[in-house]
């Protein structure tokens, strides 16, 4: 009631509307709008700083009950000030503090402070790079940013870039929402280049998969990727009309890299079958689950031998090329036909920023579309060769970040991540309660907690069967991850590794990309896991009854 | 040199890096960051206010030459302050002033001031709604926003929303980058529901289009849409492996609405053919080129009769439902199976914000994907049923905007657009030099300038053939649009209407969505077009030689 009196009823009228579209005319209203920005910048961050935890403990069910209104109010119910206050005070504490150095479970992490400013610029300019008429210089700028990353990947000669960087008929790459759509774009191009219009066929894009295959006497096309391939590969095959069973999974070796012998054998087998065509082989530069890098030079050589499109999913690893110390880990990426990179991962950009690149500047001609009102043939509209239409001008964020950070600035982040991961792995090896499952090649590693009674040894092997041992280990590690997440002080993720010849193994997974994550912090996280096990899991395990 | 002295060399070191990730610890650095925000908020807007023009006149070639660097510098080359200054002083003047009330050519326009703040919040929180572990409350919030728009569209009963709004197994819709991906998502679902896994078939998603069709003795599936359908429909058919020839174009009537007789006849024909299956009929609620709305209730009735998925592309028109005065123009949309809406169009959100909705909360089960490390079966992760993976939490922008504007606030914008379009059309009819080609049904209309000597009359018909008359009219209007755009004071777009039984007609196209576009402004734009014609085109036309 008091509040009702203090605040006039909100109304939607032309005067109120005009205020939201017009420039604030006086100093006072400018100050108010700046004040709001200050609250957003520091109100949210202050919260995150005080709130070292990852998230509050309110159960999801309870949270969900608070968001059960399905009607849009007719009259305004909040001012901008109310919205900001509510987000800072009520929403943010229930969001996930991805910028905490204790949040080391996913590929979402802290971003440099200035990224928020750069995102604000994108919104304030509100350009739409789908066409020149709604973006002009921003389209030109975007081409430059794409060329810079293209060069980082493929390192072609100066003449190549001079020729193609601003040539309307050339396309070095495309911004998309994320790695999923980047992979989809690359495979869309690969599909259309495998099944193009010829004298004997209208081609897949125009005539569909069924006819394009039939015209060539084919029964199926396949995509080969290691078993650690991202699920977006299967999704892309599903979307593109190949069916996700088209994805042929190649096992990995002990280092989680694609088994080249099996790759070679599978390619021979598929190519022997006159009804099968191989559409693409995908190498991974930083698998989602273990961070491993496939043997790219060898895969490239095999692809060339078989004349198959070579795509590299470097959504995670791509920016490692910026490091003089570790860039060599991605050797062979320059031999790819197409590459996926996620800007919101190791370029440390805010969500969302995906990119796909093609070595051949004409590759994306295979997916060109025109319309009568925009994207007319011969125009320089970027929307002609692109999966998506309208989109935000996120090239401004990446381009500016490259200027502000320099390759060296990014290299500091990359090097820190890789070196912290190595230190973490050493610590795992040092602690008797843990077992390292996959050593870090980049900055991701997996491990698990192995209780005393379940440690592999002559004695335990006699008393617990391998299968029940694994079942118990999986159970223990699922519990640890869940209890740690719910406690809210730190966060690691978990996944189930399915490696050929080995049973499904539940592992704890850490992604080390936050420059503020120090050995002191990861030790605290490991200590917490040990305590969780000892205090909350061990008592109910009754291992004793199993190990007499 | 002086500058070199004044400013220390930029270096990338750990200290500099720490500053970008840490909280600013003191008042002074906070003030600097706030100051930057102020510059972004008002520097860009001040530019736009002073710069009434749409864009500077620098030719594209010259602009392109300025953006031809393809190398990423090793050391930092700019501070945030430099980046902001450069964007305000050099980039923005070459961008397109889409917020000018004189920019009435595309579906990109001014946005309320507070939208920039809301976008900043999204970047600052940097949540990733692909999974609960990187978004928590934001996923729950997003479900609420989706339910609100779902209810605006389908208006199902309270019990329906109580049941599904937060039920993890239900999906009312999905945020995607734009209308293209929304249409693609809807058609992906429709494809998989037409060709599901059954006892006789593995289904399209898993087994591919070729096998799924073969299993059913089908040769093709078709999508029916009017000839004014957005080009993303053809693109979606291409991507999904149907081939873009699967899109069967239904002609429009004189009001640019789908011809129902032809629709009925085509459906009968396709259904008679045992080798053809109709996958979807698409009704358009606001065609891109003319703003026309298809007869949705009748199309819905026909779809039900034939048992075909009914998709409505309301990328443009959807938010008209918020207007009590004009919401009825979209009658029948509630009968759709799926609907596309673009938030960055008539919800006035910044780029980019697309959405797709399904009446059946289980529809998106047809496109579910899981992974071992996230999106596990049974989890509430939103990424399970979604084309895209990682993405920005744009639901925060739309949800907050609905609170701030209320339906009534949006209705003011919608009503203004429709009524301004009507006034514009009246003005066209009043001016003898113009001809209205498509009257506005919503807030889009097309027209052309018809010079004296080319006016259709008994005399002119005798002297100029219809064909050469049309060719000259097309030429004149292409010139007008180009010269007006290049002059940089105002912007209308042009398109080529291809209507059955009529020759290709070049038209000027206006989209009236900026609340600051008044009759005075559109009259000035028409005056300018007349002047451009008289001063720059007529002298070289030599119409006299054609009209003796």
Which tags fit this structure?
548 residues, 7-stranded mixed β-sheet, pyridoxal phosphate binding (chains A, B), disordered C terminus, Aspartate Aminotransferase, domain 1, 4-stranded antiparallel β-sheet, globular, 17 helices, alpha/beta, PyrdxlP-dep_Trfase_major (chains A, B), Aspartate Aminotransferase, domain 2, homodimer
Give a verbal description of the structure:
The structure is a homodimer of 548-residue chains. Chain A is an alpha/beta fold and 548 residues long. Chain A has helices at 2-6, 14-21, 27-50, 60-65, 80-91, 114-125, 137-154, 158-164, 179-194, 204-215, 231-239, 260-272, 296-306, 395-430, 458-463, 466-487, 519-541, and strands spanning 173-176, 220-226, 247-250, 276-284, 309-313, 338-342, 354-358, 434-438, 444-449, 493-497, 505-511. Chain A is 44% helix and 11% strand. In chain A, strand 8 (434-438) and strand 9 (444-449) form a beta hairpin. The termini of chain A are far apart. The interface between A and B is large, with 188 and 188 residues. Chains A, B: The modification N6-(pyridoxal phosphate)lysine is found at residue 345.
């Amino acid at each position: 009631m008091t509040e009702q009196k203090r605040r006039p009823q909100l109304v939607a009228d032309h005067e109120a509307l005009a205020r939201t579209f017009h420039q604030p005319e006086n100093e006072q209203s400018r100050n108010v709008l700046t004040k709001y920005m200050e609250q957003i910048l520091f109100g949210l961050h202050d919260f995150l700083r005080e709130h070292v935890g990852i998230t509050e403990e309110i159960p999801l069910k309870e949270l969900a009950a608070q968001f059960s209104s399905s009607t849009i109010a007719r009259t305004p119910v909040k001012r901008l000030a109310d919205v900001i206050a509510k987000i800072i005070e009520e929403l943010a504490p229930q969001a996930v503090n991805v910028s905490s150095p204790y949040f080391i479970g996913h590929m979402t992490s802290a971003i440099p402070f200035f990224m928020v400013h750069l995102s604000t610029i994108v919104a304030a300019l509100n350009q739409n790079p789908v066409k020149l008429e709604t973006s002009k210089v921003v389209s030109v700028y975007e081409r430059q940013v794409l060329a810079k990353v293209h060069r980082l990947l493929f390192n072609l000669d100066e003449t190549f870039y001079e020729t193609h960087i601003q040539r309307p008929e050339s396309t070095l790459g495309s911004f998309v929402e994320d790695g999923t759509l980047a992979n989809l774009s690359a495979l869309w191009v690969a599909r259309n280049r495998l099944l193009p219009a010829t004298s004997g066929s209208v081609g897949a894009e125009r005539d569909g998969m069924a006819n394009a295959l039939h015209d060539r006497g084919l029964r199926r096309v396949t995509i080969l990727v290691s078993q650690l391939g991202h699920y977006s590969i299967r999704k892309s095959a599903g979307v593109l009309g190949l069916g996700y069973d088209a994805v042929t999974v190649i096992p990995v070796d002990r280092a989680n890299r694609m088994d080249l012998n099996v790759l070679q054998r599978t390619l021979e087998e598929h190519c022997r079958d006159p009804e099968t065509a191989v559409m693409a082989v995908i190498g991974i530069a930083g698998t989602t689950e273990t961070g491993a890098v496939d043997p790219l030079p060898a895969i490239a050589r095999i692809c060339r031998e078989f004349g198959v499109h070579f795509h590299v999913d470097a959504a995670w690893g791509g920016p490692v090329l910026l490091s003089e110390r570790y860039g060599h880990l991605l050797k062979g990426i320059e031999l790819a036909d197409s590459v996926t990179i996620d800007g919101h991962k190791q370029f440390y950009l805010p969500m969302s920023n995906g990119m796909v690149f093609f070595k051949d500047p004409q590759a994306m001609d295979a997916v060109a579309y025109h319309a009568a009102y925009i994207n007319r043939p011969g125009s320089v509209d970027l929307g002609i060769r692109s999966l998506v239409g309208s989109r935000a001008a996120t090239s401004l964020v990446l381009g500016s970040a490259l200027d502000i950070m320099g390759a060296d600035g990014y290299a500091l982040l990359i090097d820190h991540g890789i070196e912290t991961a190595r230190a973490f792995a050493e610590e795992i090896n040092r602690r008797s309660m843990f077992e390292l499952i996959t050593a870090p090649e980049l900055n991701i590693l997996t491990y698990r907690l192995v209780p005393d009674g379940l440690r592999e040894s002559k004695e335990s092997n006699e008393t617990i069967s391998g299968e029940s041992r694994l079942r118990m280990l999986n159970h223990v590690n699922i519990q640890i991850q869940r209890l740690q997440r719910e406690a809210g002080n730190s966060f690691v993720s978990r996944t189930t590794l399915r490696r050929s010849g080995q049973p499904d193994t539940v592992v704890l997974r850490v992604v080390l990309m936050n420059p503020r994550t120090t050995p002191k912090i990861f030790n605290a996280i490991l200590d917490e896991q040990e305590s969780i096990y000892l205090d909350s899991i061990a008592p109910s395990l009754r291992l004793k009854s199993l190990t007499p």
